[in-house]
């Protein structure tokens, strides 16, 4: 079961993907593609090694997204991020605050063996 932080991250990603899919001129018309991308993002958040203490994905030392999906999410976030301030200001401010949090140390079971 995910906590408040993960639930908020999921909601933020959902809103960003929807904003991009509905308003961006370069966006694909394939709604199923964005639904699949959101499902993938949800799975990644559910399996995040940091759990509720997770850093912002761009600061995370663990890259859990496949490279192609990571690039697509970067593109979506670059386009939708500034527009989120007007459409979803509370989520945006919370995301910016979370972005300033320090990156926690990797849990012991995920650290490399020395």
Task: Walk me through what this model shows.
It comes from Salmonella diarizonae. This is Nitrous oxide-stimulated promoter family protein. Pfam families: YgbA_NO. The chain is mainly alpha-helical and 114 residues long. It has one domain. The protein contains 4 helices and no strands. The model has no long low-confidence stretch (mean pLDDT 91).
Overall strand count: 0
Helix content: 55-70%
Distance between the termini: 32 Å
Number of domains: 1
Tally of helical segments: 4
- Proportion of β residues? under 5%
Tell me the structural class.
mainly alpha
H and E string: HHHH
Q: Mean pLDDT across all residues, rounded? A: 91
Task: Supply Rg.
Answer: 15 Å
General shape: globular
Unreliable stretches (pLDDT < 50, length at least 5) are none
Largest sheet: none
What is the strand and helix layout of this fold?
Layout: H1 4-23, H2 31-46, H3 67-87, H4 89-99
Which key features would you list for this structure?
single chain, mainly alpha, Uncharacterised_YgbA, 60% helix, 114 residues, Nitrous oxide-stimulated promoter family protein, 4 helices
Task: Give a brief description.
The protein has helices at residues 4-23, 31-46, 67-87, 89-99. It is mainly alpha-helical and 114 residues long. The protein starts with a helix and ends in a 15-residue tail after the last helix.
């Amino acid at each position: 079961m995910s906590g408040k932080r993960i639930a908020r991250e999921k909601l933020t990603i959902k809103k960003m993907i929807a904003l991009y899919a509905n308003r961006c001129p370069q966006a694909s018309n394939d709604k199923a593609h964005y639904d699949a991308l959101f499902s993938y993002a949800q799975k990644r958040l559910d399996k995040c090694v940091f759990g509720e203490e997770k850093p912002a994905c761009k600061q995370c030392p663990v890259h859990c997204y496949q490279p192609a999906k990571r690039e697509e999410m970067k593109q979506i976030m670059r386009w939708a991020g500034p527009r989120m301030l007007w459409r979803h200001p509370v989520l945006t401010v919370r995301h910016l605050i979370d972005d300033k949090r320090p990156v926690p140390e990797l849990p012991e079971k995920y650290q490399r063996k020395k």
